[in-house]
Amino acid sequence: MTSPPPLTVRTITTTEHAAHIASRASASFLQTPGWAQVKPEWRAESLGWFRGGELVGTALVLYRQLPRVKRYLAYLPEGPVIDWTDDDLSAWLTPMAAHLKKQGAFGVRMGPPVVTRRWSAAQVKEGIADESITRLTDVPPLERSREGAAVVSQLHELGWRPQAVEGGFAAGQPQYNFVIPLTDDAGTVRSEDDVLKGMNQLWRRNIKKAAKEGVVVEQGTRTDLKAFHDLYVHTAERDHFTPRGLAYFETMYDALSAEAPGRITLWLARHDGDLVASTIAIRVGTHAWYSYGASSTEKREVRGSNAVQWAMIRDALANGATVYDLRGITDTLDAADSHVGLIQFKVGTGGEAVEHVGEWDLPLNRPLYRAFDLYMRRRG
Q: Which UniProt keywords are present, listed alphabetically (predicted)?
């Protein structure tokens, strides 16, 4: 039996990259070629894995230059898009590392899109109620992924280093997310009624209340980004985080809209003409994400945030998504922690908490990598 040809890695065009993403069931939006336009402070490269002449894997690589030297950290957020079930990941990662080193990288950071553990909404809720439990990892998981364990084992063997996580949030992308499966265990698409029944009583009541109060949810256009951003800045002031500028969202909207119809959508919930909640959703293939959200302090009683989430979930179902991703949560279940409110909001949807393998580094130039690592630790 003839063995398959070895994998080779080279730069590809953004057109080739986008076509490969479109051929798959899904991939992270952070691995689409359009995302490079959202991060102009990084130099970007579309990378392809070839077996013979066939393109079998891709990556968006973002290069961040070190101060005063032409050496780079090569970052692959929630990527690369390769076969992570392969029991020989070296065949994929070794040629990638060699290519990136030739490009001037002193180190590589990647976030394999691989789940290691899952917890049900009921388990998370019980963990918050139990005073002896302070972390999600204190709760025995509903499921442990063999694939995830195999990936972690191989990465250790290949010299990759897991990045430290503070409260569940890594320096880059979150290690813990909360998702709503939109198909059952047999792969059958769930009905809207089934998804709604999976939510807790408070969520169902708030969705009904929003409808009774006359909250109207609709998709917006690019011209509505200013209204979203004004509300987002208001939310940032109230909740004490630093907001992104309007130009960031305009660039994101333009870049992702150009790649595929419906990839990015803006949602607005209004009550008697007042904007009470607004969100941005992203969809790549069968995966839909809640990406950014904003809500008014006034009229919170009309439950615009619940109404707009329900509209996005229904839209995801209608467009064939198999998962609705509410993005990051911390791993804290301590009722006294300020992050618990966000977890409780997401848990009410009846989905599940998932842990990914997290972000991993591979030093290519050890002295430069050590200097970079020390700089990042001091800055943090």
A: Acyltransferase, Cell shape, Cell wall biogenesis/degradation, Peptidoglycan synthesis, Transferase
Domain of residue 71 covers 7-111+359-379
Q: Indicate if 32 and 121 belong to the same structural domain.
A: no
Q: Which two tokens stand for residue 316?
A: 């995801």
* Nearest Cα to Cα of residue 253 among 291, 225, 277, 294: 225
The answer as to whether 161 is a domain residue is no
Share of the chain above pLDDT 90, in %: 86
To the question of pTM greater than 0.85 for the whole model, the response is yes
Residue-wise pLDDT tens digits, 83-136: 999 999 999 999 999 999 999 999 999 999 999 999 999 999 999 999 999 999
Q: Are residues 130 and 277 in the same domain?
A: yes
Peptide bond into 80 cis (omega under 30): yes
Confidence of residue 168 (pLDDT cuts 50, 70, 90): very low
User: Are 42 and 27 contained in the same domain?
Assistant: yes
Does the residue 167 lie in any domain? no
Residue 335 in this model has a pLDDT that exceeds 90? no
